[in-house]
Every structure is written in structure tokens, then in C-alpha cells.
Design brief:
Blueprint: H1 3-12, E1 15-21, H2 25-36, E2 41-44, E3 60-61, H3 73-89, E4 94-103, H4 110-117, H5 121-125, H6 144-154, E5 172-175, H7 176-182, E6 192-201, H8 204-218, E7 222-225, E8 228-233, E9 240-244, E10 250-260, H9 266-272, E11 283-290, H10 293-299, E12 303-307, E13 313-319, E14 322-326, E15 330-331, H11 341-354, E16 365-373, E17 391-396, E18 405-410, H12 416-431, H13 455-466, H14 470-480, H15 484-492, H16 499-503, H17 527-536, H18 542-549, H19 560-570
Parallel strand pairs: 1-2, 1-10, 2-7, 4-12, 10-18
Antiparallel strand pairs: 3-6, 4-6, 5-6, 8-9, 9-10, 11-14, 11-15, 11-16, 12-13, 13-14, 17-18
Helix pairs in contact: 2-8, 2-12, 13-14, 14-15, 15-17
Bound molecules: flavin-adenine dinucleotide (FAD).
Residues 21-27, 44-47, 51-54, 56-60, 62, 229-230, 261-265, 269, 272, 285, 327, 371-374, 408, 411-414 line the site of flavin-adenine dinucleotide.
């Protein structure tokens, strides 16, 4: 069904069992799980799918070793298990990531972190309290001993007795000499490095959209529409008003249950539903993408995870030929944010702490992105870093409402499946239905039939089958996993049926029968590929393709020329 068909259907349909507001990763995951249980579910987003916080993460699929310090053992255990699961269920997007922690001394942080773990941090702050930590020069560093203990605990949930799916290799320590041999640009102030394994998702927005489109294919009762906002309630207080951001048309829907998955917008959305809440205490985080070959070479294929003097964690992440640097953690009261000059200065300065001989300047910045963590409101005096990253469903039931509202507060990208499972169980209970299947082993999109051990054979056989150059197949396999087969099938079909509306178009001297022609402005992408994505993946604006169906924006390729070319290629496919 096209977006237009879906909206037409919506105008004739006034009731739905569950309305999910917000299509970030948490809304999308709940959408998938509910649809699998045969619940009729409508998911709407005021923007594109995965265009809020979920597009601004540090791209880590991780257990969150740092959360151990706060004693959040449940969260770490769940996150490690979900990480390992995602490596199996979405192997085309979620990849193992060796992560290096530079260690500057052996002892520091022991008392301080023990106090945090046992919830006694107050002692450290109290003027009359014991000074358990911070002997001169110690700052907030975690020394080698504490890192070792942390990694041992972290890997408990990765042990063979617990893990049935993918398992990560164990951590190892390297002393100074071998550390500097492996990372020659590293500060010579280190005493050792620790290397452990987490995972990375380089295209989170693609993973999210695959979940959406796959869910709609699996279930006739599931409808997901982007650029459709919740703007208010009709008089009856049982009817939610939806506004089409493209045409301006309005729709009304009466749900039995509402899931408010609007992340940092949760309180604003509840206000629109006539039910003010104070659930979210947002924290802004910004990242930079740096085009700096020397720095990229210095980190190799490792993420580098270290802390600043103020105890904040800094991450350097290899991202294709570039490096992502993140992140800040700043209390904010509104969800619309951007990366400020102050944050840029802070992040660039941090790099010098571990790589003192590599000069990084603003001119190396290719792209910046920011988002707001939808953390729970916390009025205590603890630092942003100490506020829980765990997820919770806050249920609002009011007498005047005919539907309750589930509010999905907090959560990590990593734990989307587990969070959705818990929310779905609660929704099923409310609807009086029982679970018929679960998502624990449900492979995602291009992770199906993934050739873990024989990808060269997969590439060769698809190339032969569709008579397409194997270099193109390889590129598309890297981008879409086994989903590349459908893209290539589409590309190998001549545009015969479309020549009436499109064939006379002199697009880049395009032969209308050749969809394998590379784009004029990004040779890495193909005309037929762009058309396939526009047709199959709910693209409404060219920007959706540049920012979320591909990595082109983050790779610094978003130019007016590319936009013009894509507009032409997609012209007949986008809703007008
Ligand atoms: C800087 C930073 C780094 C992070 N790094 C990691 C990491 O490395 N690993 C990890 O696991 N997690 C990470 N996270 C956490 C993770 O990204 C978030 O917890 C998660 O993306 C939240 O998703 P969400 O679906 O709840 O919210 P969102 O993704 O924000 O989705 C909410 C959606 O609601 C929509 N919406 C708002 N109002 C309305 C309305 N009125 N009508 C319709 N739609 C509406 C918005 O358009 C938006 O798309 C990070 C977060 C940040 C900010």
C-alpha cells in the first residue's frame, strides 16, 4: 500500500486497538511485537521514521559497562544479552566492535566507584563525609584495577553457560610497550590498555526502517505512517486528531490504548492529549563526524573509550573512512537541539588527551548531530551520568479517558526488543489477549539467510543469477545484507513499464533501460537502487533518503547537486 492508500484507508477507519505515537526505535519495536500478536496497530510519526533521538545515538550496541558503577546490574545483564542477540538477528547491520580503554594509572577510582556502586556517593560530596577518593591528581579516572574488575563483571553475562547466541571474545590487557606498538599515536602517559568487545550499528536508521516495512508485510493489521502528527483531542476526549504534515489533511482515530513513544517529546505529547505529565528530564548529546585520515589510522578498527577529567566518557568510533567523536551530556528542557560551538570545542579538545600529537581542528568536521536522551525526571543532585539509562513504562489511567496511555520512558537502542516485549505483554494484558509468538529469535530484514561463513559465494551466485557485476552485488550486500537480492532483482529489470512517465527524461543521459547506472553525484549509488528504496521504504522527501535510508548525509555527501539529481530520479514515486 502506498502512503496515499494508507491515508485513504485511515479516513474510512475510525477505530484501532493500539495507536503508537512516535516511530523512534522504541515505538517501532512495540509496533512489530504487537503486530506479530495479531493486534491491529497504527503507528504515526510527526517526521520520518527514526528521525528523533534514535538517529542521534553513538551507534553502539552495548551492555553499558559504565552502568555497572551505578549498580544497574539488571540493565547491564539485559543489554549484554540483547547485544549478543542482535549480532545474530541483524548481522548485516550490527557488527562486533573491539573497544580500547587507555589506562593512565592502576589504583585510582577504587573507593569512589565502590561508593557509587553501593549508593554511597553522598559520602564523597558531604563536607563532613569521608574523602574516599580523589587524592591529589587522581581526578575522576578509573584506574587499571577498577577497569579490570568492571570488565570481569561485565563479561559474566557473556559466559558460555548463559549465552546461547553469539558470544564475544574475552577482554585482554596490554602493558605500555605493546599498547604503544599497536597504537603508536597514543599518549605515552598510559600504563596499559584494556581491549574488550561490544558491538556497533553503522546504519541504525536502516535497521529501524526494515523493522517497519517487514512488519507491515507480515501483518495486514499493522499500519505505519510517517509525517502524520498527533495534534490534539476531539471534543469527546476519546478521539485523537492526526494531522498530515504533507497535505494538511486531518484524521480522527479512536484507540483502545495509546502508546506514547515520543521519547523526549513525551510530556509535550501528553499535553496534546490533554494530560500533562512530567516524566522526561532530557539530556542532550552531540557528536562530530571527522574527516581526519591520521586520526582514523590511529584508532584502526577500534572504538576508543576514555574519560575526561570531569568523569564524562568520550568515545572515538571508526565510521567508514571517518571518525565519530561523542558525546556531551547536558541537561535540556526541550527536544529540538543542535550541536553548539561550545560542544565542538569541548569534543575536539578531548581528543588531545589520548592522542596528544594529532591536531584536530574545526576544518576536519564533516557533519554534526545531536539528540536528547529521554531520561526520567530526576530532581536529585546526582550528575547526568548517574541518572538511570534503564527503561520503564509509565502508565497513565485517567477517569475521563476511555483509553490509558503507556509512556515509554528512557531505554537504549540496544534494548529495544526487550523493552518492546515488556510493553507488549502489558498491552496484551490490557486488551485481554495472549501472546502467540515472540521476537527472541526473529531475524531482521537483510539478516535473513545471512551467509555468515560464505559471503563470497552468495555474492557470486547473485551476480550470476541476475547478470550484474559482482562488484555492484558486493557493495549492495554491504549496504543491505541479503536484502541486496531484492534491490538487484529490481535493478536488473528494465524500466519498460515506467518509460511512459519517466523514459523521456534526460536524467544524466540515463538510458531508461539501465537501472544499474551509477548516480552522477555519488558514484557509489545506483539509479535502480534509489528507485527501489523510494518505492519500498516509505520515502516521502528526498531528505529521508539522504539522511535515513542511506548514510550519505553523515558521509558528507549531502549537496544541492545530489538533492536535485535524487529529486529527478524519485519524482514519480514520492507523494506530492
Ligand atoms: C547522544 C546520545 C547517544 C546515545 N547513544 C546510544 C548508544 O550508543 N547505544 C544505545 O543503545 N543507546 C544510545 N542512546 C539512547 C537511544 O538512542 C535512545 O534511548 C532511543 O533512541 C530513544 O528512542 P525513542 O523511540 O524512545 O525516541 P525517539 O527516537 O526520539 O522517537 C520519538 C519519535 O516521536 C516523534 N514524535 C514526537 N512528537 C510527536 C507527535 N506529536 N506526533 C507524532 N510523532 C511524534 C518524533 O518525531 C520521534 O521520531 C543515545 C542517546 C543519545 C541522545
Amino acid at each position: 500500500m502506498t502512503r496515499q492508500d494508507q491515508l485513504r484507508y485511515l479516513s474510512q477507519q475510525s477505530k484501532v486497538s493500539v495507536l503508537i505515537i512516535g516511530a523512534g526505535i522504541n515505538g517501532i519495536a512495540a509496533f512489530r511485537d504487537l503486530a506479530l500478536q495479531n493486534v491491529d496497530v497504527l503507528m504515526v510519526d510527526k517526521g520520518d521514521f527514526c528521525s528523533g533521538t534514535s538517529s542521534a545515538s553513538s551507534h553502539m550496541i552495548h551492555g553499558g559497562i559504565r552502568y555497572l558503577e551505578n549498580g544497574e546490574l539488571r540493565l547491564v545483564r539485559e543489554s549484554v544479552q540483547e547485544r549478543n542477540r542482535l549480532l545474530q538477528l541483524a548481522p548485516h547491520y550490527v557488527k562486533p566492535l573491539p573497544t580500547m580503554i587507555p589506562i593512565f594509572n592502576w589504583q585510582s577510582g577504587i573507593w569512589k566507584i565502590a561508593a557509587k556502586f553501593f549508593g554511597l556517593s553522598g559520602l564523597l560530596l558531604s563536607p563532613t563525609g569521608l574523602r574516599l577518593a580523589q587524592s591529589k591528581g587522581e581526578g575522576h579516572q578509573r584506574g587499571g584495577v577498577i577497569v579490570k574488575l568492571g570488565l570481569m563483571l561485565y563479561e559474566l553475562w557473556n559466559s558460555p553457560s548463559i549465552v546461547t547466541a553469539a558470544r564475544m571474545p574475552s577482554h585482554r590487557f596490554q602493558l605500555k610497550v605493546s599498547s604503544l606498538k599497536q597504537f603508536p599515536e597514543l599518549s605515552s602517559d598510559i600504563v596499559a590498555t584494556a581491549i574488550y568487545y561490544d558491538a556497533v550499528v553503522l546504519s541504525p536508521e536502516r535497521l529501524a526502517v526494515e523493522l517497519v516495512t517487514e512488519t507491515e508485510k507480515m501483518s495486514q493489521n499493522a499500519t505505519a505512517i510517517n509525517y502524520l502528527s498527533v495534534v490534539g483531542m476531539a471534543d469527546s476526549q476519546r478521539t485523537v486528531i492526526l494531522h498530515d504534515e504533507v497535505s494538511g489533511q486531518q484524521f480522527q482515530i479512536q484507540p483502545e490504548l495509546v502508546i506514547n513513544a515520543t521519547g523526549p517529546w513525551i510530556d509535550l505529547t501528553n499535553r496534546k492529549l490533554g494530560q500533562p505529565t512530567d516524566f522526561i528530564g532530557g539530556s542532550k548529546g552531540s557528536h562530530l563526524v571527522l574527516d581526519h585520515p591520521k586520526l582514523r589510522e590511529a584508532i584502526g578498527e577500534h572504538a576508543i573509550f576514555f574519560e575526561n577529567d570531569d568523569g564524562r566518557i568520550v568515545l572515538l568510533l571508526p565510521y567508514f573512512d571517518y571518525v565519530i567523536v561523542g558525546t556531551t551530556d547536558i541537561r535540556v528542557d526541550h527536544p529540538e537541539v543542535y550541536c553548539t560551538q561550545e560542544e565542538i570545542t569541548y569534543l575536539l579538545e578531548m581528543i588531545g588527551r589520548v592522542f596528544p600529537h594529532i591536531e584536530v581542528e574545526p576544518s576536519h568536521i564533516l557533519y554534526t548531530f545531536s539528540g536528547v536522551r529521554p531520561l526520567p525526571t530526576d530532581n536529585s543532585k546526582q550528575s547526568m551520568g548517574q541518572i538511570t539509562r534503564d527503561h520503564q513504562n509509565k502508565i497513565v489511567e485517567q477517569a475521563e479517558y476511555s483509553f490509558p496511555v503507556f509512556n515509554l520512558v528512557g531505554g537504549k537502542w540496544t534494548t529495544f526488543r526487550a523493552f518492546a516485549e515488556q510493553v507488549t505483554d502489558q498491552a496484551l494484558k490490557f486488551l485481554g489477549q495472549s501472546r502467540c509468538c515472540d521476537t527472541k529469535d526473529l531475524v531482521i530484514g537483510g539478516g535473513n539467510d545471512y551467509p555468515f561463513t560464505d559471503r563470497e559465494h552468495w555474492i557470486a551466485s547473485v551476480a550470476e543469477n541476475y547478470q550484474v557485476d559482482s562488484k555492484i552485488v558486493k557493495k549492495l550486500f554491504d549496504r543491505y545484507g541479503t536484502g541486496a537480492r531484492a534491490v538487484i532483482k529490481h535493478m536488473s529489470e528494465p524500466l519498460l513499464s515506467r518509460t511512459d512517465q519517466w523514459g523521456k527524461n534526460e536524467l544524466n543521459d540515463l538510458d531508461p533501460f539501465d537501472q544499474t547506472k551509477p548516480l552522477g553525484n555519488v558514484a557509489d549509488y545506483y539509479v535502480g537502487e534509489v528507485r527501489f528504496i523510494a518505492e519500498q521504504e516509505k520515502v516521502v522527501f528526498v531528505e529521508d533518503f539522504i539522511r535515513r535510508r542511506s548514510n550519505l548525509a553523515m558521509l558528507g555527501q549531502d549537496t544541492p547537486q545530489l538533492r536535485a539529481e535524487l529529486t529527478e530520479i524519485m519524482a514519480d514515486l514520492l507523494p506530492s
